[in-house]
Amino acid sequence: MSFQPNQIKQLAQRFPSDFTFGSATASWQIEGSSATRGASVWDDFAAVKGNIKDGTVADPACDSVNRYKEDIELLKYLGVDTYRFSVSWPRVYDFKNDKPNQEGLDYYSNLIDGLIEADIKPTLTMYHWDLPSELQEKGGWQWSGITDEFEKYAELLASNFADRVDTWATLNEPWVVSFLGHATKIHAPGLGDPRAGFISAYYQMVAHGKAMRVLRAHNANRAGTVLNLTEIITDFESCTDAVKHVDNLQNGIWLDMLSGRGISEFTKQATGEFTDWSFVNEEELKLASEPIDFLGINYYTPNRIEPAEDVQEFIVGQEPEVYPGTRDVRFVSREPKSLMGWEVRAESLTNTIRATAKALPGVPLMITENGGAFPDEIDGDEVHDPQRTDYYFQHLSACADAIDEGIDLQGYYCWSLMDNIEWAEGLEKRFGIFYVDHSTQKRTAKDSAKFIRELLASR
Ligand code: BGC
User: Which of the listed residues 28, 423, 428 should we mutate to test ligand 1's pocket, taking the one with most ligand atoms within 8 A of CB?
Assistant: First the structure.
């Protein structure tokens, strides 16, 4: 461990008293119980052999539909202020019979009530990638009608939960949906078509804007969205153009749409070989810049670029194809790394927060996900995860550095509350601060959970 026990208290005291600490999960990754909901693109994707490394499917995941009360106990143990969970769209709306699924709505309603009872503020993400299969059949995020469907979905959620949810996030990481799910085949729906990547980027952001209007109409307490943003770095001058290009696709296009800058000339030129953006309707595009109360940043690792070589390192989600139009470079990462191949570099988090605050002036920021897949050493009833604990210490310090600079950073959520289905990587990559024994569903606090508990208790 790179820090001393007395430094935990010092770290805790670097955060203002109204700073919000939480932990996060997502529906498809933890819920299980797929028989009581409709199918999503992730069920369809998981059904194809080879798409998910270890053949993991939606069931049982962490069986959280049945164990949500136990999960609230984990949050109470940590002493967090808030819990960020996502709603499974096909659990609350039955597309086969074209009507809401009351059992699904009740599940989230009970979860929300249970959180409030435990004095934990609910943070609800509307869309964390599990698009209903029926909507994918209509074209999914490439279909212009999808934004109206999302608006109806927002209406359903807001009319049921706006009285009780503290914080709303419309989308989670539209970049991943566009570039891992549409431009390439790494995630669902697995299209492998760069043009589809750009269309889906646009419709997701328009859908976000429509949902924001619905949330306002329901007087939602606090509403915004979540992007995965990061710093793109290189030591090579020959890579500066590639850095600019990757930076634009990772950060620029989303922040441009959110801030009302629309689709920039730079973007149009850089993506001209794939699309002329003729699907953009200026009126609709304006919706993407509906005012937000906060922007959530999910941060894990920087992207490091070097001149191309034959060997591509193992770094989940980082390869030239996921940034269409990237040429002559490769992605690399330096030690220390997580099991995802992701470089651990906390200063890139401070730099990302600073760059985002500059690109989106006046918008409060939150770190809505941060954490890592690291080895866990099981020792009786204890689980030692010094690398993850260290990661949290360093990255929380990096957040405090941003606050010291005067940036309006209001919250931080650990990803993830518990080991879960790490999408195409399956069950093998564990991000939890609670260890989950996938055969018994037993949850055990890892040392990192104890660290978070101590940190929060030292405030
Ligand atoms: C996602 C999570 C995911 C995590 C680690 C984020 O991209 O929002 O669902 O598990 O990163 O890969």
Answer: 423
